[in-house]
Fold:
Amino acid sequence: MTIDKSWTTIKRRSSSNEFWNGLQHFLQMAKPFVNDRGFIKCPCRRCLNNASHQLEDLESHIFRNGFMFGYNQWIHYGEPATANAGTTAVGPSGGIHERDEMFDVLDDIISEDADGDAVGGPSSNEQYDDLFAALRSELYPGVSSFSSLKFLVKLMHLKVLNKWTNKSFDELLKLLKLAFPKIDLVESHYEAKKLMTKMGLGYSSIHVCKNDCALFWKENSLKDTCPVCSESQWKLQSGKRSGKNVPHKVLRYFPVGPRLKRLFATSKIVKLMWWHSTGKSKDNDVMRHPVDGKSWQEFDKRHPQFAGDVRNVRLGLAADGFNPFGNMSLSYNMWHVVLTTYNLPPWICMKAEYLMLSLLIPGPHSPGKDMDVFLRTLIDELNELWVHGLDTRDAAYENGVFQMCAALLWTVNDFLARSSLSGWSGQGYRACPTCNEDTPSMRVIRKMAYFGHRRFLPTNHHWRSNLQFDGHTERKRPPRRFSTTDILEQLRRVKTGIPGKHPNYGGVKQKRGDDKLNWRKKSIFYELPYWADIELKHNLDVMHIEKNVCDSLLGTLLADPHKSKDTDNARRDLAKLGIRHELHLFEDSNKLMKPAADYTFSEANRRKFCRFIRSVKFSDGFASNLSKNIAQNDSRLLGLKSHDCHVIMQRLMPVGCRSLVSKNIWSTIAELLIGVRKCIIQVFIC
Structure:
């Protein structure tokens, strides 16, 4: 009877049941021939029968490295030296369970090291032996459909999806152990997390000064006090350090390189990583992906060596604050920095599973001007990825290893986060980053006002000649566009400030001179060699803008006292400017009266509009149930989400307002909404 050895030549081991079953049969065959210490020669492509390992290690070695070529007579495993290396199959005997899907995952992980690092030797991947042990182990005696590792991974996934606490996870493990005494499972969440860390994609904990002055990292890693404000990095009790060192703040950093390597090592994803080179829009007027935009194309022209390999990665960055405790009454503000990979097609790159969390910045307050302190780790890695790259396995090719480089193309944020990232303050007389020093603004009651928006319209637009606003026509051209040289010259005059919020150091408020304009700092992004030449550096999230516009517009139309822009102070500002006399406040019988404006609904029309919103029916999945957002007295809308505002502005407001306001007001609203819709339909990166 001959032995089937055809499985040893299969190249795609991760997707072959034949290889898996053949390997299991080989291990059963080799089991009687281990020495007295439990070791046996390893026939993988690295060991080549020159090294010996325990039998349980043979499986992982052969699976990740492959079976050595030309070894047709298995003399070390019981086959006689005179036996023919036939290929007539007897096949593995019964009792071998079906291949576990987790082997595909481990193959992708191990291949990153096995193909990318040929000098590590047979023991370079011993960290994976525990994973293979958990993969070989049955969850419960007689249950072959679930390995211990597979069950643990799915359990951890449920924990994340359903937001279980660590304590509840520990209690569940105890219950499973109590109910099924023979179950092969870890004892606690700590042990589970320790095992999952071996699968890669972990994070680093970096201590931070309590005043956000510096990171205790690299040159500061051995220091106990902040190099800027001299504050201790440890929490103190009665002026003394407690028994256990507890840092004031901890920054969680998730390295980008290993996550990008995992995308290329995953056979189901790797071919999508060069979609941007083949999926470009053929219509010059249609932009369905950033690759169709001018900024991407200009970047490729300036950096042809980077653009020459379509596998090089283009990244986008987004940052925002959130309350991790869910109770919005707590004033705790934690920030996350997320990266997205624009190599992927548009229907994938923005899905949650393809977004990469890079930084978790601790609270309780927003980092503000000290954002660069926390971005230091990410910028250093991005510089490394640009200059040197990473040896990366390409799963689309057998033994394919290439030098992967990456570049950050832009950031996408709301206006407040943009200020922290770019260094240009979003407050004051020159708050507009586009108009820069030419921002038209004035001080009104309790806030700043920005005017002159008609200058952005085409020169023949009828609103330019309309006298209703201030009695004058608008002849000014749009503001000039500042070149890269102009911006760098402005930043050259900005002095480097002291970081942090300590009242005697970085927290000292400094007056901004006219030469500094609205610059608070030179952003850390300028340390990237290519950043200064990028045409669109900081983009505004259109959904944030659309929601803000919708809330203000609805609040004004419905005369919502909390959201309307038609306030008493706004009417006083009109009187002070001497315009729109019909809207000025006046006294009547010692009472201050506010004339009704033609751009607000009457009480009856407010109810008509709300009833119209309530009556609209949508197809499944198109929109949420908007009737739940209407107040009981049918007078206003409450708690609208971003997508709710999108649906109202694009679909409902033009129809619902048409018969409730004058023609001039309706046409103005309709033109505004059409402009926003065109911007979104063109997938315009604002």
In short: Residues 82-99, 115-125 have pLDDT under 50 and may be disordered. The first strand starts at residue 39 and ends at 41.
